[in-house]
Write a structure and sequence with these properties.
heterotrimer; A alpha/beta (394); B alpha/beta (286); C alpha+beta (89); A: 394 residues; Rossmann fold; 6-stranded mixed β-sheet; C: 89 residues; alpha+beta; two-stranded antiparallel sheet; 3 helices
């Protein structure tokens, strides 16, 4: 079958990617700028015998997809800042109970109601630490419409493989803009399905290698009659308050991610082999950063773009290698410096990290990033500094 | 081993509830109703929220889900819509269901989704040791109502009926045969069923309000209960301060997951050729 | 000859009984008593098999069975091991 080429909206591509992964259950609540995902799921899922439910709020939405996932269905919801905040408790529940779900967070200017139709990237820390307690989670960040398809599909694979909630972090621009997209041949798509036990005999729902092992997951309604609880639980799923059980559980859940960063982490970039000034940017900021880097290169400045496609866990190893020769790292992001904190943690001792925060609800213009690069190139990149984008960098 | 015990995860008993707590009695009533109907244990899914009553599901030998406070019905909605063939039951408490869970309760009722909800109403927050709840009678004491509860409480069954529940009944942990009958009929109703069980919390509600031990509390509950059939012929003033027990509403209506199933069939008929959806990209993902 | 009086025996799960006294209070024939905080069928022969104790017991600690003739009617005390969770609770 020839490759299908379509003009697609980011939110539409997220939905297509989810369907390609085998999405069969969507529960959601309307919120700008993610509502198109709900509308498309309402239209497409019935065609495949799947189910769309519009719940009474975002808490109900994430609760419903966890319930559906427990019956063996691939389940997703989509929201934006305010709804994402409401979903945090159940996000922690899905992490502790190891229930695979996907949440698309189409970021908008916040906090609070904020500017619903304006892009922002200020949910980076919330995506990782929004819910209470140590917990395992994966956050992917599409940089264009095609990646909305690819990374939503990958989000399901990672959720099923590691039995964790996975967040697809886009923003109003990525979600609403349209691009030409070449969809892969459906026959080439091999969605990953969670490893299930063979029979109920002796089934222990939470038995796994303590060093980051992923337990086999039985569906409800198949005769396993197992127990799922948000209380800490032992291998049989029974609630337990024992300290050794708690310690073992938390460390196993954490190790599921930390021991598999090589498999999970993904990034892309340009000019990273020899750059002296690296720009770290994700999502829509990376588009402007890319053209700025290319312009600087033409003018003889050794600039490079490092674009993480996984925000959490951050591709630290790769960035450290770049930092060996990139003595300055500029971090343009539509917030006051959140991903920059991770960059500082990883490369702060070997490179100067320059925060380039833009918080006026507008995208970065390439010349703003270009000006920051050239500014660093002129003053030889000495000492810590942070330039202010938006009004300042006219 | 008795038929009755086969429904329990006996390695996890005795349970954690206090001596004389009514939650065990209500759990037993549910199991007896399920046994009467001969439901297939592998097709029953019991979901609960947070609180003393919600610990019940951990002891029951079904697919069980102990969720977040107030969210049992939302989780259960996901299960029922994904697997309409399962018998989905929610076990919840008065605080879990009508305070933090109130929004999900009225919407589940409005949709008339096929879920049987057992509300174990001990008129207090037992797990957190005795605060007043939306079901605590006005004037009674709670650790957060040290001068007497000034709030009016819900009539849960009227609330359920008004929101759209198609089977509603109330009994108590004293009137156990009636409770079993109501649960049995609730399980057979093909829509949203609510059975409220007024039950005793001797450790907190009883002690704080000096109502005596479990037996005295049960008698206190019994004295407030009036069967709905008897109440129909009693003068109004006699019903002052009482609550009705028995079957309070039985009006079957189309069940939500079945309605959605018909929608799917209708859509699939009209989109004969579309196997993979709008972008054909889901065609091999079954 | 009056119809032979039915005989019932009580299965009591001592480890589960918490001595709340509900069964003792509501037994119409005062068959049951608490001994060291556990229920015992003191006057099993008076039992009329109404199951009030069984239905109201919050701990599933008592069950009534109709004796088939030869079965003696002293209570059968069943020992159920304490579950792991109980140590925690």
């Amino acid at each position: 079958m020839p490759k299908t080429v379509k003009l697609m909206q980011g939110n539409e591509a997220c939905t297509a990617g989810a369907l390609a992964a085998g999405l069969r259950f969507y529960a959601g609540y309307p919120i700008t700028p993610s509502t198109e995902i709900a509308e498309l799921c309402a239209e497409e899922l019935p065609k495949m015998g799947g189910c769309f439910v519009q719940m009474e709020d975002e808490i109900g939405s994430i609760a419903a997809i966890i319930g559906a996932s427990l019956t063996g269905k691939k389940a997703m919801t989509a929201t934006s800042g305010p709804g994402f905040s409401l979903m945090q408790e159940c996000l922690g529940y899905a992490s502790l109970c190891e229930v695979p779900i996907v949440i698309v967070n189409v970021q908008r200017m916040g906090p609070s109601t904020g500017m619903p139709t304006s892009p922002a990237q200020a949910d980076v820390m919330q995506a990782r630490w929004g819910t209470h307690g140590d917990h395992s989670i994966i956050v992917l960040a599409p940089g264009n419409v095609r990646e909305c398809f690819e990374l939503t599909l990958r989000a399901f694979d990672l959720a099923e493989k590691y039995r964790v909630p996975v967040i697809v972090l886009t923003d109003e621009v990525i979600g609403h803009m349209r691009e030409k997209v070449e969809l892969p041949d459906p026959r080439d798509i091999r969605p990953f399905n969670r490893a299930a036990p063979r029979s109920p005999a002796g089934y222990k729902p939470y038995a796994a290698d303590p060093d980051g092992g992923v337990p086999l997951m039985a569906p409800f309604g198949a005769g396993y009659r197992w127990h799922v609880t948000g209380l800490f639980h032992d291998e049989t799923g029974a609630p337990s308050g024992k300290s050794d059980v708690a310690d073992k559980l938390i460390r196993r859940l954490d190790a599921k991610i930390e021991n598999n960063v090589d498999d999970i982490c993904e990034f892309s970039g340009e000019g990273l082999e020899d750059c002296e000034i690296a720009v770290v940017a994700f999502g829509s900021s990376a588009m402007s950063a890319l053209s700025a880097v290319r312009r600087a290169r033409k003018e003889g400045v050794k600039a490079g773009l490092f674009r993480p496609k996984t925000i959490w866990p951050f591709p630290a190893k790769a960035l450290r290698e770049v930092a060996l020769h990139a003595k300055t790292i500029v971090v343009p992001e539509m917030n006051l410096g959140q991903l920059a904190l991770e960059v500082e943690r990883i490369a702060g001792c070997s490179s100067k990290v320059v925060k380039l925060g833009k918080v006026n609800g507008e995208l970065f213009r390439p010349e703003e990033v270009y000006a920051a690069i050239m500014g660093e190139a002129d003053n030889g990149g000495t000492g810590q500094g942070s330039a202010k984008a938006g009004e300042g960098a006219k | 081993m008795s038929e009755f015990l086969s429904y329990f995860r006996q390695d996890r008993l005795p349970h954690i509830w206090c001596p004389g707590c009514g939650h065990g009695t209500v759990t037993g009533a549910l199991v007896r109703a399920i046994d009467r109907l001969g439901l297939d244990k592998n097709k029953v899914c019991v979901v609960s929220g947070i609180g003393c009553s919600s610990r019940a599901v951990g002891y029951l030998d079904f697919d069980t889900l102990h969720t977040a406070h107030g969210r049992a019905l939302a989780f259960a909605t996901g299960i029922k819509m994904a697997r309409p063939d399962l018998k989905v039951i929610v076990m919840t408490g008065d605080g879990d269901c009508t305070a933090i869970g109130g929004n999900h309760f009225i919407h589940a009722a409005r949709r008339n989704i096929g879920i049987t909800t057992i509300v174990m109403n001990n008129e207090t927050y037992g797990m957190t040791s005795g605060q007043f709840s939306p079901m605590t009678p006005k004037g009674m004491l709670g650790t957060t109502a040290p001068y007497g509860n000034v709030e009016r409480s819900f009539d849960l069954c009227e609330l359920a009926k008004a929101a759209g529940a198609t089977y509603v009944g109330r009994s108590t942990s004293y009137h156990v045969p009636l409770l079993i009958d109501l649960i049995e009929k609730a399980l057979q109703n093909d829509g949203f069923s609510v059975v409220e069980a007024v039950t005793q919390c001797p450790t907190y509600l009883g002690r704080k309000n000096k109502l005596g031990d479990a037996v005295q509390l049960l008698n206190w509950i019994k004295d407030q209960a009036v069967n709905v059939k008897a109440a129909a012929v009693m003068p109004k003033e006699k019903l002052e301060g009482k609550f009705l027990i028995g079957e309070l509403h039985n009006g079957p209506a189309p069940e939500y997951s079945a309605e959605y199933g018909e929608l799917i069939a209708r859509v699939q008929r009209s989109f004969e050729n579309v196997k993979g959806g709008l972008w054909e990209c889901a065609s091999n993902s079954d | 000859m009056s119809e032979q009086k039915k005989v019932y025996f009580h299965t009591i799960r001592e480890k589960w009984c918490k001595g709340c006294g509900i069964c003792v209070a509501y037994c119409p024939k005062k068959v049951l008593e608490l001994k060291d905080g556990k229920v015992v069928a003191a006057r099993a022969e008076d039992c009329i098999g109404c199951h009030a104790c069984e239905l109201r017991c919050p701990d599933f600690a008592i069950e009534i069975h109709e004796a088939s003739g030869e079965r003696k009617h002293e209570a059968e005390h069943v020992d159920f091991a304490l579950p792991p969770e109980a140590h925690h609770a």
